[in-house]
Amino acid sequence: MGKIVVFGAGGRAGRHTVAEAVARGHEVTAVVRDPANYTGPAEVSVVAGDVTDPTGVAVVAAGHDAAINAAARLDVSSAEFYTGATNALLDGLAVAGVGRLVLVGIGTMLEAAPGVPLYDTPGFPAGAREFSLGHVAELEILLAAETPVDWLVLAPPPVVLDDEAPRTGRYRIGGTRVPSTASFAYADLAAALIDEVETPAHHRVLAAVTP
């Protein structure tokens, strides 16, 4: 099995991702802002880290085979956080020799109509649009980067993901259209993230992950 470093391991997506990786026998490093507050699986190495610090990223990622970014911040602007994190991840992972990065995206970036992302549709809330634009900036950096890191952004449906629903293992990846679904489980998002680490099938794109 491999060694995976998970940034943002204390959040819902991060906790489920760590649990999925541990269940498959991977060696996991969980990166959080405050290890004292970590409540995920005990069979991991928990370290304090800042995903916007390229030197710190390189240090905690050294010796790993792949990285997953599920980190988010609501106390700073979305654009500031996601651009800082993306640049730091690309720089730090390249230094550490980590070749695969899978990032948790946001469903509002998916297209409601051809060429029209959901965040640009009439009546879309201004606050949610601003948060979405941080993810847009993240993707723009990734697409423009000349990097050895093979990245993928997986965007779940633009619904409130279910934190309690059991893992089904049923999902599909592909396309950029908003799916017609009312629910999706964090556990299945985690399964998709780990599958794309174990057997990378999508490369350097934004892709929807749907039931």
Describe the structure in your own words:
The structure is a single chain. Helix content is 34%, strand content 20%. Strand 1, helix 1 and strand 2 form a beta-alpha-beta unit. It is an alpha/beta fold and 211 residues long. Helix 1 crosses helix 5, helix 2 crosses helix 3 and helix 3 runs parallel beside helix 4. The strands form 2 sheets. Strands 3-2-1-4-5-8-10-9 form an 8-stranded mixed β-sheet, covered by helices on one side. It has a two-stranded antiparallel ribbon with strand order 6-7. The chain starts with a strand and ends with a strand. The chain is globular and about 45 Å long. The chain has one domain: Rossmann fold, CATH 3.40.50. The protein has 5 helices and 10 strands, in the order βαββαβαβββαββαβ. The model has no long low-confidence stretch (mean pLDDT 97).
Give a quick precis of the structure.
It contains 5 helices and 10 strands; from the N terminus they run βαββαβαβββαββαβ.
Topology:
Blueprint: E1 3-7, H1 12-23, E2 27-32, E3 45-48, H2 54-61, E4 66-69, H3 78-96, E5 100-104, E6 111-113, E7 116-117, H4 126-144, E8 150-155, E9 172-173, H5 186-198, E10 206-210
Parallel strand pairs: 1-2, 1-4, 2-3, 4-5, 5-8, 8-10
Antiparallel strand pairs: 6-7, 9-10
Helix pairs in contact: 1-5, 2-3, 3-4
